[in-house]
Design brief:
430 residues; alpha+beta; Rossmann fold; 4-stranded antiparallel beta sheet; 10 helices; 23 strands; 21% helix
Length: 430
């Protein structure tokens, strides 16, 4: 067997690959060198090699921000050092690795898409098995047949069989749905940096009120999927804008790491450039724009409300990081997260949206969950108190017995209540 596990020193993020014979009394043996964050190891068909996904961690073993996860190999007997098979600057591998007699398969993120690819066992350019404007959610291979679950802008996922020249859809779970389509858009910042994303419009000529959504992470991506948030807001009459600014995954190593030490300012530059480009469309009403986001998207919503509030009518900040200092001591990732992204402690106040709460001039709805251990509830409470004690228009909606994943896996009744609150807020302010 092969598995990945932390080592005795809990002060870093190292996860090593271990192998162990499947018999009583066998002792596990480490085959990596204590300098990677590894996951999902799998033996080759002949058992001589272990393939796995891993991130490099920098000299202090804590530099995880924007790292492009790669496919790696290592001899099962530990006779040589691990070898990276996919380039550091290339697409980010995700979702594990699967081995067949001749090939490796994994998923890679690519400009909002998630493709299923075949990686040569000795390294080299991956071959795309499932490509295009889709998100491959999962995959498997048995008896010479490869299947996958693939989502796109019209479906949350259909089972497909991978063929020599593409894939054949086997299911029709989305039959009868008529979702609002997403249109790709690429904007450019003042210095020419490209910002890629999507616009989804309601029916009619407009001009429609606009909701700018900012994703969490920050190292994740909006992409090609049937996203409930987009569909609900567009159906209610709002134009929805989504983009993948610097800090997002799917656009390479440099793009993911570009925000280190200046998270709010760099991300806001890209997001606002995308907004400007989208508002060139006369079907969008530039005088009625709201901004919202969760987790890192909530961080950015609070930041933008403070620094660029003149662009917006109102804001909704959810499960946000607002104050880096207390996040460091209370979050379930707070022991290692702040420094590599926000810089040393003496910079945390400058990087915290809460520091600029007195500059917020737009109405703010704060949504949070009582059992959010990733961004603990004090992050919301501190912002709410800062706004209300100076008489600012702010409301706070707090969900009991929910955590950081409320919008994705919370109780259905709570998810419905949240949507109702969001739509009520936009109806009042846009």
């Amino acid at each position: 067997m092969a598995f990945a596990a932390r080592h005795a020193d809990r002060g870093d993020l190292v996860e090593d690959v271990w192998v162990c014979a499947p018999e009583a009394g066998a002792q596990p043996r480490r085959v990596t060198a204590g300098d990677l964050s590894a996951e999902a190891p799998r033996f080759s068909a002949d058992g001589a090699t272990v393939y796995f996904l891993a991130d490099e961690l920098g000299p202090d073993l804590d530099d995880f921000v924007g790292r492009t996860t790669g496919v790696w190999s290592v001899p099962a007997d530990g006779s040589a050092a691990p070898t990276r098979l996919t380039p550091q600057e290339g697409p980010r591998a995700t979702g594990g690795v699967l081995t067949t007699a001749q090939h490796l398969m994994t998923r890679i993120e690519n400009r909002g898409a998630v493709h299923l690819v075949r990686v040569p066992p000795d390294g080299g350019e991956p071959a795309t098995l499932v490509g295009g404007p889709v998100e491959t959610r999962s995959f498997d291979h048995r008896g010479g047949v490869t299947v996958a679950v693939v989502a796109d802008g019209a479906s949350s996922g259909e089972v497909v069989r991978v063929t020599g020249d593409g894939h054949r859809v086997l299911t029709s779970f989305a039959q009868g749905l008529d979702p609002h389509p997403m249109t790709e858009l690429t904007a450019h910042t003042a210095d020419g940096y490209p910002v890629h994303g999507w616009v989804a419009l309601p029916e009619g000529e407009g001009p429609h009120p606009v909701v700018l959504m900012i994703h969490g992470g920050p190292f994740t991506q909006y992409g090609w999927q049937l996203f409930d948030e987009t569909q609900v807001y567009v159906e209610a009459g709002y134009a929805v804008l989504m983009c993948n600014p610097r800090g997002s995954s799917g656009y390479g190593h440099a793009h993911g790491r570009a925000i280190i030490g200046s998270v709010g300012a760099v991300t806001a530059t890209d997001v606002l450039a995308f907004l400007d480009e989208a508002l060139r469309d006369e079907r969008l009403d530039a005088s009625r724009v709201g901004v919202m986001g969760g987790s890192h998207g909530g961080f950015m919503t609070t930041w933008i409300a403070a620094h660029h509030g003149d662009r917006f009518r109102a804001a909704i900040t959810e499960r946000a990081v607002n104050a880096v200092d207390s996040f460091q001591g209370s979050s379930d990732i707070g022991s290692f997260f702040p420094g590599p992204l926000y810089g040393p402690p003496q910079t945390w106040a400058k990087e915290s949206p809460l520091t600029y709460a007195d500059q917020i001039s737009v109405p703010v709805l704060i949504i949070h969950s009582e059992e959010d251990w990733r961004c603990p509830v004090e992050q919301a409470q501190r912002l709410f108190v800062a706004l209300r004690t100076r008489g600012h228009e702010a409301e706070m909606l707090l969900f009991p017995a929910e955590g950081h994943e409320l919008t994705r896996s919370g109780l259905p009744s709570h998810r419905v209540a949240r949507f109702e609150a969001v739509l009520d807020w936009w109806a009042r302010h846009l």
